[in-house]
Specification:
The protein is mainly alpha-helical. The protein has one domain (21-74). Helix content is 55%, strand content 5%. The protein has helices at residues 4-14, 26-33, 53-74; strands at residues 38-39, 42-43. The longest helix has 22 residues, at 53-74. The protein is flat and about 40 Å long.
């Protein structure tokens, strides 16, 4: 689980840098973590640190929307 204080420190450290963006999908991961390694018949982790391909595919539309928004702002 992501420590909010560490995340804020990372964002603060990057505040003055150009083209640094943060995409936080914690709510998509953490709400499922309380259900264990899997939820809704979807296994989240293939080991202690890596998502399964199917769970990554589940996150892809959210990540894509965030990235497209960031890229649109950069124009």
């Amino acid at each position: 689980m992501l420590d909010p204080a560490i995340f804020e420190a990372e964002k603060s450290g990057a505040r003055d840098l150009e083209n640094i963006h943060f995409i936080d999908l914690t709510d998509q991961v953490c709400q499922r973590m309380f259900a264990g390694r899997s939820t809704s018949a979807r296994v989240m982790y293939r080991d202690n640190n890596h998502f399964t391909a199917k769970f990554a595919d589940h996150l892809m539309p959210l990540l894509e929307a965030n990235l497209l928004s960031i890229l649109g702002e950069a124009r």
